[in-house]
Design goal:
This protein has 151 residues and is of the alpha+beta class. The chain is built from 4 helices and 4 strands.
C-alpha cells in the first residue's frame, strides 16, 4: 500500500486492521525518490494509524516486510512519544518472527545490534526508517552487502 499524494488522517486505513497479507505500507505520502517534506504538513494522525498498525504486526502469520512513515512523525523524535513506543513494539515483535537472512551473504538479520526500524532518537536522519529491506523488491539485505555493492 503506497499512499502517494493522499490527504488522509488515518481513519480510512481501518479496513487494514488485522491484515496478515499486506507486505508493504508506505505512509510517507510522497512518491518514490521524492523529498519527504510536504507543505502544508500532512494531517496523518499517529492516534488513528498506530492502533491499526499494531493490529497488523500482532497477528500470527503477519507478512509485513516494510513500513515507511511520514517525515513529520520521524522529525519529532522523542523516546516518550507513541510513535517511538510503536517502533520498540515493532522491533520486539519482528524479532520473534521467523529468522531472516541477507539474500546475498546469508547473514542473519538484523545484524550488529541494529533493529528493523531505527529507534535512535539522537539521529534524526535515520530515526524511524526501515532497515535491511529493499523498498522496491521487498527482499532483505545486510548493510555490508549494500555498501560493498553486492546489492
Amino acid at each position: 500500500l503506497k499512499l502517494t499524494n493522499c490527504h488522509i488522517k488515518g481513519a480510512g486505513l481501518e479496513p487494514l486492521r488485522g491484515s496478515i497479507i499486506i507486505e508493504q505500507i508506505d505512509l510517507s505520502l510522497v512518491g518514490e525518490h521524492q523529498r519527504p517534506k510536504i507543505n502544508p504538513e500532512p494531517q496523518i494522525s499517529c492516534d488513528l494509524v498506530l492502533p491499526i498498525l499494531d493490529s497488523i504486526i500482532e497477528r500470527e502469520g503477519c507478512t509485513l516486510k516494510y513500513l515507511e512513515f511520514p517525515s513529520v512523525w520521524r522529525e519529532e523524535s522523542s523516546a516518550e512519544s507513541e510513535f517511538h513506543a510503536f517502533i520498540l513494539r515493532y522491533n520486539q515483535i519482528r524479532g520473534n518472527w521467523e529468522e531472516t537472512s541477507c539474500l546475498e551473504c546469508n547473514h542473519s538479520l538484523p545484524d550488529n545490534g541494529n533493529q528493523w526500524i531505527d529507534g535512535d532518537v539522537s539521529d534524526p536522519i535515520v530515526y524511524g526508517t526501515q532497515r535491511h529491506t529493499c523498498y522496491s523488491c521487498m527482499k532483505h539485505y545486510c548493510y555490508r552487502c549494500i555498501i560493498n555493492g553486492e546489492r
